[in-house]
Each structure stands twice: as C-alpha cells, then as structure tokens.
Amino acid sequence: MRLKSYCAALLSCSLLLSCTDLDENLGSALEESTTGNINPAELLISAYTSLNGPYQHDNRWCLQELSTDAAIAPTRGGDWDDNGTHRAIHLHTWNADNSYMSNTFGGLLTAIYQSSNVLRYSPSKQQAAEARFIRALAMLDVLDLWGVVPFRESLEDFRELPKTLQPQEAIDFIISEMNAVMPDLPTSGAAYVANQNAARVLLMKVYLNKGVFLDRQNPKFDAADMSKVVALANEITGYTISAPGKYFDNFAPDNNVKSTENIFTLYNEEGVRGGGVDRAYWTVSHYNMTPGGWNGWATLSNFYDKFTANDERRGIYYNYPSDTTSNRTKNYKRQNVGFLEGQQYSWVTNKPLNARNPATQPLVFSRELTIRTSGTTLETAGIRVIKYPFDYASKGQRNNDWVVYRYSDVLLMKAEAILRGGTPGTAADALTIVNSIRTNRGAANLTALTLDNLLDERGRELYWEGWRRQDLIRFGKFMQAGQIRPADADPKTLVYAIPSQQIAVNSNLKQNPGY
C-alpha cells in the first residue's frame, strides 16, 4: 500500500543552499522550532519531494536531454521561444543566465539542504540513511552537470558559506556516504523509498563516470573502477527485464505495482503528493490530441532511425487500465506510446486528426525539423515522444511514479564496464547481457558489441529518461556536430555555466572555465 503522508514541513522550493540571507533567516526559524514539534519523518518527505522539480520532465531533464541528439524544443512561431532558453540548450550556446541552469542548480541544492536538515532532528537510522542517499543523489547530479559541488556539511552556522568540493573530493564523499548508509537502508520494498539497490546503482554511476568527472576531455577508465561497477551490478538482485510487450509497464500509471525493473522512483499519487510527470505528455502532444497538449518538444529523425520497426521501444499500442479513451474501450488500438510519427488519429473517434491552424491540414508529425519552425510546418514538425502513458483516470496528480533507476540500466552499465576492462566478464558476456534486453524488446540480436553500438543501445533503452548527455560525454560524442547544430568549438560545454546569481552570493564558487 502506498504511503499516505502529507508533507507538513515542506520548506520553500526557492531556497538556494548558497544564498546567505535566506540561509540565515531559515536557520533562525529552525532554531526557534527545536522544541520537539519537528517530525523527522515529515522532513524526510520534504527531502524526497524536493527532487520533483529537478527531475520530473523539467530542469535537470532538460539539461540532460535537450542538449543531445535525443530531444529538442524548437521555437514554433511565437511559441516555445522564452528568450531562446530552449534553443540555447540544444545548440550548446547557453550562458550563466540560462533559466534551466539556474532552476536546476537551485533545485538540486535545495534537495541537498532538505536532506541534510533531516539529520538535525534525531532521525532513525533508516531515516538518516534515506536522507543521506537523497543528498548523495543530488550531489552527484551537481557534479555531473557543473563539475563542482557547493556543500555545507554542518547546518549549525548559516553565516559560513558553503565550501566548493572539487571532483575528487565530491567523488570520495559520495562513495563514503553510500558505503556508510548501506546497512541501514531497506533491502526491499517500494521503489519510491531509498533502498540498498538504489545506493548500489548510485555507486555504479559514480565509478563508471569517475574518469569523466576527473578529466572531461580525456577520461581514463580505471580497470579497478570498472570492476567495482561489475561487482555492484552482481549484488543487485530481485529484478527482471520486462517481458515482451511490457516495456511501458515501467512508466505506466500503476508502475509502482507493475514494473519488474524499477529500482528507485519518485512518488506520484493523486490526492497525496507528487510532481509534474504529466509534463512528459503535455510538452509533446498537439492541441487536438486527447487531451490537448502544448505542441512543443520532439526528437530528431537521426535518433528515431536508431530503432528498427519491430522494436517495441519505438512505439506500440499499450493496453493499460488508466486509458479510459475509446482507443482502449472500443478496441481501436492506435499507437499511444513511444515515438509518434506520421498521421495521427483521434483516440476518441478513430478518425484522422487535423492541425489547428490551418484546420484543414492533416496532423502528420514529420521527420523534417528545424530549430525554428513556422508556416505550414509550425504544428506538425518533429517526431513526438510519449514515454509515460497518460493517466486518464486521474483528474489532478497523475499516478505514474517517475523513474530514476531501472534494472536495464544496471545491466547496460555492467556490459559497458566489462568492455572497458572490468572483471569478471568477457566481451561475449557483455554481448549476451545486451542481447537479453533486446530479445525482450523485440529487436534482433547484435552479432558483436562495441562501445559505439552499446551507446546506441543505451539510447534506445533509456531514451528521455535523463541520461543521454551523461552517456554522450562518457563516450566522447557530446561535442560532435548534431543533426541541426555544428560541432562544439570549445570543450567548456562539457560542463554547464554556474548560474550568475549563485556566484554572486557565494564567494567560494568560481565560474567554470570559458564562461
């Protein structure tokens, strides 16, 4: 049964860890409230909830996906411009005032603060372990995106500015934290509660990307680190790759009970609490779809072409109870998940849909796409992506839990670590791992496994889940020319610009080189 606790002590989501005045005011308020009326369980819910802003198809997601070959937010006439914010992310022309960077940085530092705050109020061992997991997760994201981590280990003196952890310091701290809390985390249970396997996946991410974090341009993948990845993967048990036809179970409105893969998720339940998982539908869907969306984001045809026609990940009709449309109840069975390309049909009448302006134009999502669209292609340009089946049965908060870690990612990281020198395992073992996933997705077996086709397989399996940028950097391809953007001339883009307002309030933060 799902947890039914409301977050009574949710702190302001606008709080930034490195903002001195806000910290001092909050510190005073907390000091006045240490009379026993602060519940660490409620503070822990606040810490979990603080991840929703960065993660649920917003902010962090945008930085990790819109900057790659897998996603784009084109400007459509006067829509989706926002002073070029979206275009700058995809074209790698951002600066230190980009709102996505500011919001992500602030949101992740808020999560670090919220989880650290739990530790001040006598939590149980498990509560403390969960809070430290959340903190490490957010710290790893800051390290990945910006290359350094502002961190205040003690919350007792808010006049002291956070220090800036350099890559090795942050890596060492995160590894130490996860090893320390592992025994106090649950071994099983709901995926939206931090658990031992989630901590193992977090450690796998650290060891696999360690060489990148230490040298973005010329990463070295130490065999001992790769062997750590393999060993951690072997310790993660109790999960299986979704059966054929069940890939989208991992993202469905009832994925908390249906998925066989989800290791760590963010909790969403109507009438209780959650985040903006429905943005995964609104941002891509056309006004005339059911329900109408915002007609925005898309993928690139080169990325779409990485899939074969029989690969269920590319898109299928997915039958699920929360689909209350005629597409299910009248057995129309039109494709409703995956990549939407070509003529679109009403899931109410089963008739072909038209665009809105002009209303006589068929709604045909096209392969052709530019960073700015107008005229007859304004509403139709770009292949759309629906990863999370829409929860029609709910009127407010959608129930799809947001997926952070999945078992298929564990297996793909293990295969990669083996290819990069990790033991035990051979190239043949890595190929077997990858093909075990492809078989269940309806894709033909690969005959050989290389780093290049493994990167493609990670793209196919984990598209729009917030890992593409990290993967492209690790495989040395992030700076290469994209389908509609030139190659990066400056390696500064391997980390984002630290937001200007953060540097203004924390003299311990220095801008990343080149910005």
Automatic annotation (TrEMBL):
Location in the cell: Cell outer membrane
SUPFAM superfamilies: TPR-like (SSF48452)
Positions of the RagB/SusD domain: 269-481
Gene3D superfamilies: 1.25.40.390
InterPro entries recorded: SusD_RagB_dom (IPR012944), TPR-like_helical_dom_sf (IPR011990)
Keywords noted in UniProt: Cell outer membrane, Membrane, Signal
Main location per the UniProt record: membrane
Signal sequence coordinates: 1-23
Domain of life: Bacteria
One GO cellular component, as annotated: cell outer membrane
Assigned protein family: Belongs to the SusD family.
Protein name as catalogued: RagB/SusD domain protein
